[in-house]
Write a structure and sequence with these properties.
alpha/beta; Aspartate Aminotransferase, domain 1; Aspartate Aminotransferase, domain 2; seven-stranded mixed β-sheet; three-stranded antiparallel β-sheet; about 40% helix; binds 4'-deoxy-4'-aminopyridoxal-5'-phosphate; binds glutamic acid
Length: about 400
């Protein structure tokens, strides 16, 4: 049999998508599953955004567009980056891609040579490792700890910097930890990037989902030098409940933006023309639906965190951003539930789904393989209705009472 490419060897399917798919499959079979798996808002795309998409179809806006996106959308993104983040970009420095995931992929493909070291503070989102590996880069992991609120330990980070360091991938607000980096945290990273000359790929997809008056900062806004090294990634998926429309974007200096645009021009060409029109409506229209969603998420977070901490064998920190909580299950590991030894977070997630019909994502998915600490956690998404949150917590409490 002919061999496939070596790059396929190390790749595993996205664990977050796998949990979401499994939960949806069980639901379609009529099973009553509470889904704390997927990271996507349960809200519908706001009406005015949908209308813009429908109008685009009616007006036959259904042909190829410039590969990096239509000028009107790239201008709207520049305006957003200026107003929300204090960063000035020219529309030619924006590349609109099929989701922030694709924007990240383009960014890594544009800067990472085989063997380049890409620093990943973890727990981190499941796709970072594979995006880096597909570019033949080497993920270099820096652990962040629950006791530090999952903020970066700068001594640990400094130790990982070598002449081969090409970039750091940061994500604040963070998936899966919910950590929001402070201005000082980001400035310290930026200083290191300038000193040692590496890129910052700043994934800001959860920028709007921030609570307790925490503030979001974009490293590219700090100085001209830092901006030149930074690729800012964002999109409309999470903030505007538009996960299926597939609109993300990257902003960077002209050299990098051109490289990302050229890569995309040979891979996917432009993003769906209709979705581009809808994204303009999202960015330029009323922000009221976003504000309402943020308020609801904050309330859900409170109920979720309180509920987890009320379960005798579980605990969590109260995160300040995104819509995930890392539930600490370390006290359950090695114990038996319904005859099954809970050896690790994956087994916990499997048995919980099987016995209590609650879907969560194993902590081990969010970092390098074989790291014991990650097995202390399961990621629970609270991007779901309040009734489901309460019922899910009740089921988890009952499940853990069987330990
Ligand atoms: N970055 C992070 C940290 C995410 O959690 C996600 C969610 N899928 C993405 C990027 C990608 O978002 P999109 O749906 O826009 O591709
Ligand atoms: N980002 C979301 C999550 O972490 C969506 C799934 C994915 O793309 O990984 O659940």
């Amino acid at each position: 049999m002919l061999n496939l490419a070596q790059r396929v060897g190390s790749i595993k399917p996205s664990a977050t998508i796998a949990v979401a798919t499994k939960a949806a499959e069980l639901k379609s079979k009529g099973l009553d599953v509470i889904n704390f798996g997927p990271g996507e808002p349960d809200y519908n795309t706001p009406e005015h955004i949908k209308d813009a998409g429908i109008e685009a179809i009616r007006k036959n806006f259904t042909r190829y567009t410039p590969s990096s996106g239509i000028p009107e959308l790239r201008s709207a993104i520049c305006k957003k980056l200026q107003e929300d983040n204090g960063i000035t970009y020219d529309p030619s420095q924006i590349v609109v891609s099929s989701g922030a995931k694709h924007a990240l992929y383009n960014a890594v493909m544009a800067v990472c040579d085989p063997g380049d070291e890409m620093i990943l503070p973890y727990p981190c989102w499941v796709s970072y490792q594979y995006i880096v590996e597909l570019a033949a880069g080497k993920p270099v992991y820096v652990e962040t700890l629950e006791k530090d609120g999952f903020r970066i330990d700068f001594d640990a980070l400094k130790e990982k910097i070598t002449p081969k360091t090409k970039a750091i991938l940061i994500n604040s607000p963070n998936n899966p930890t919910g950590c929001v980096y402070t201005r000082e945290d980001l400035q310290a990273i930026a200083e290191l990037a300038v000193k040692h000359q590496f890129f910052i790929i700043s994934d800001e997809i959860y920028e709007k989902l921030i609570y307790d008056r925490a503030k979001h900062f974009s490293p590219a806004s700090f100085s001209r030098e830092v901006k030149d090294l930074t690729i800012t990634i964002n999109g409309v998926s999470k903030s505007y409940a538009m996960t299926g429309w597939r609109i993300g974007y990257a902003a960077a200096n002209s050299r990098i933006a051109k490289a990302m645009g050229d890569i995309q021009s040979h891979a996917t060409s432009n993003v769906n023309s209709i979705a581009q029109k809808a994204a303009i409506a999202a960015l330029t229209g009323s922000q009221e639906p976003v504000d309402a969603m943020i308020e609801a998420f904050q309330e859900r977070r409170n109920v979720m965190a309180e509920g987890i901490n009320a379960i005798p064998l579980m605990s969590c920190r109260v995160p300040r951003g995104a819509f995930y909580i890392m539930g600490n299950i370390s006290r359950v590991l090695g114990k038996k539930i319904d005859g099954r030894v809970i050896e690790n977070s994956q087994v916990f997630a499997e048995v919980l789904l099987e016995k209590a019909r609650v879907a969560v994502t194993a902590g081990s998915a969010f970092g390098p393989e074989g790291v014991e600490e990650l097995d202390s956690f399961v990621r629970m998404s609270y991007a779901t209705g309040m009734d489901d949150i309460r019922e899910g917590l009740r089921r988890m409490g009952e499940f853990l009472s069987k330990v």
